[in-house]
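hi! just following up on the protien thing from before. the input was this:
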Amino acid sequence: MVTDNYKKYQNPSTLLLYISVDFFMPIALLCLLHFVFSNAPWSLFYTSAALLSVAFFVLGTESQGGYRNFNRYTISKNLQSTFNAWFLNRFLLLLTYFYLESVEFNNATKVITAWIVLTPLLIVLAKFKAYWIFRDKGMKKTHVAVIGNKYQFNEFEFFMLQGKC
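and the predicted 3d structure came back as:
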C-alpha cells in the first residue's frame, strides 16, 4: 500500500489554498511594506528575498508538518509549525545572503523587520480564516460513529453533535 502525505485532506482544495497562502502572502506583504516604508526603488534584493523566502518557507512548512488538517491539531501546534518554518526560513535566507555577500539593505531595515514579524502572523490568520470558512461550509467536519450505550458525551461533545458550533 502506497501512502501519500498529501492525502491528509478530504478535499484537495484545502491543501492548495494553504500552499497558495504560503506562496503569495510573503511576496505580497514584502511588496506592500516596501512601497509603504521605503523611498528606494524595488531592487533585485527584494525579488530574490521574496522568491528564496517562498521556496524555503514552503519546504520548511512541509518538513514541519504544516500541510496537515488544521482541525486535527491544537492551535498551539499549528502556530508552532508555522513559526518554526518561518524562522528556519529567515535563518536560511540570511545564511544564503551572507555567503553570497549580496546584502544591500539600503535603508530597508524597517521593511525587512516588519516583514519578518508580520508575515507569520498573517499566514496563520489566513489559514485559520480558511479553516473556519471550510468548516462553515461543512467541508472539514469529521464524522464518527459511537457504538454501544455506555459512553456518556460531555457538554462540549454534545454541543458539537447538535451542530451548533
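Confidence is low (pLDDT under 50) at residues 4-8.
The chain has five helices and no strands.
cheers
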